[in-house]
């Protein structure tokens, strides 16, 4: 049967490191508060001349190199981001131009922190159908340019970092997806009734106003992300555990069979709670939030590349990912590296 497998991975974070102590100077916060509530120690924020597709380009070039393919063998781009270069066209098109890969389809996905798992699943479906062979799957975010860095924005702004990660997913033939090296499956979910628990209202068309953005909107701070942190926390723990469980049951995989858990990194306490609820040993979870903060759609591929470089992710390992984010959206994925 046709399937897909990850044959290359790459990532990129900007050079500028912002520690919690740097943030103390901008907003009324403290290293102690941030570390205790989130686990974050530092994050990377872009320089003025960097946009989302620039970060994605660097991650993609490393992924292409690590896959050992010629870039012209890529026949599709799937780009997950909540912080695109521009409202339209999608960042996939900007990346495509920078990679000089004209004419292949470039799809943008808007599933926030769950974006990369949705993107891998979409790539897997195209490849498994036989229509495409080598798909570049990218998650990239520039959060820092959209955060309220005044004391009013502190609850959200301390959480987010910029970065990008990419994989090349390539066609393969397998007899048994659960036993061979391939992308085994993903379970995708969303529930839009929680959309306004974590969202960016403006610019937008659903306001009773004649324009998408006006001075009043800026004065009200509607162009900054808004979050009900406690609700997000509770739902994240419940949904990540639930969708991991359903994937394991479906494929008759026990949690002990899984070698490494690459979870989304929204908050270290969320991941510890998921581990506790499910009985997963903490050392099997690869966390990166301490050094990158929450990089949304870039988080999981960033983690993959770091895990490979640190020797924690090796060929043949069974890996499970789970993510939760704005939408609400949540997903799990199972793959053999
Ligand atoms: N520094 C210092 N104090 C702060 C800060 C800050 N950065 N932010 C808030 N506080 C204060 C509050 O004002 C409040 O003070 P008060 O008690 O005097 O009123 C106190 O700290 C507690 O605030 P809470 O909001 O109740 O803090 P909580 O314990 O809920 O932690 C947090 C907040 C860390 C955001 C937590 O709710 C959380 O992690 N939620 C999940 C968030 C998340 O995962 N977001 C990303 C989702 S992924 C995506 O799709 C983008």
DSSP summary, beta strand count: 13
Strand order of the largest sheet: 1-7-6-4-5
Radius of gyration: 19 Å
Q: What about the largest sheet?
A: 5 strands, mixed
Derived from helix and strand composition plus strand pairing, the structural class reads alpha/beta
Estimate the global geometry from the Cα principal axes: globular
Would you write up a description of this structure?
By secondary structure, the protein is an alpha/beta fold. Helix content is 32%, strand content 23%. The chain contains eleven helices and 13 strands. A five-stranded mixed sheet has the order 1-7-6-4-5, sandwiched between helices. β4 (76-80), α4 (91-99) and β5 (106-109) form a beta-alpha-beta unit. α3 (52-67) packs across α4. The longest helix is centred in the C-terminal third of the chain and has 22 residues, at 229-250. The protein is globular and about 60 Å long. The mean pLDDT is 97. The chain binds acetyl coenzyme *A. The site of acetyl coenzyme *A has 24 residues, from α2, α6 and α8.
